[in-house]
Design brief:
About 25% of the residues lie in helices and about 35% in strands. By secondary structure, the chain is α+β, with helices and mostly antiparallel strands. The protein has a single domain, classed as Nucleoside Triphosphate Pyrophosphohydrolase, CATH 3.90.79. Strand 6 and strand 7 form a beta hairpin. It is globular.
């Protein structure tokens, strides 16, 4: 192995509906994207030089959705994947932000669509194990209280 890198973030955006349900925002990558076109995912992005991962999460959320997140929660999970081109393993810190139900989404040109989905449908749309696991841990460890009720 040539190295271990922490150069990217994942950020889940979620909201509570008037009915009390939790929905998760997923973005569909544009068909023109070189890497994983048309893949459904949460907000993802690179950490820029001199930027802390949490700052990168706030920036990427703003760039990809138009949301200006004042506070971002740290999800107790680090996704990882192997990247063959440079023989490296990447560790990806995971973050989350809750927004009001009426939040307007303005996707970037990197994406062609967005959807608010309940947990089961979001789980089905996500392809990669690290994306699904991040969603599961967000739901079970951040959004669920000690009585088992999802907040």
């Amino acid at each position: 192995m040539s190295g271990l890198a922490v150069t990217m973030i994942q950020a889940y955006i979620h909201r509570r509906t008037a009915a009390g349900d939790t929905e998760y925002l997923l973005l569909r990558r544009a068909a023109e994207e070189k890497l994983y076109p048309l893949l459904w995912q949460m907000v993802t992005g690179r950490i820029e030089a001199g930027e802390a991962a949490i700052e990168a999460a706030k920036r990427e959320i703003r760039e990809e959705t138009g949301i200006r997140a004042a506070e971002v929660a740290v999800v107790p999970y680090v996704a990882s994947f192997y990247f063959p081109p440079d023989d490296s393993i990447h560790h990806v810190p995971v973050f989350a932000v809750e927004v009001p139900e009426d939040t307007e989404i303005q996707i970037s040109s990197e994406h062609s669509a967005f959807e608010w989905l309940d947990y089961a449908h979001a789980w089905q749309r996500l392809t990669f194990p690290g994306h699904r696991e991040g969603l599961r841990i967000l739901r079970e460890y951040v959004l669920t209280d000690t009585t088992g009720t999802t907040r």
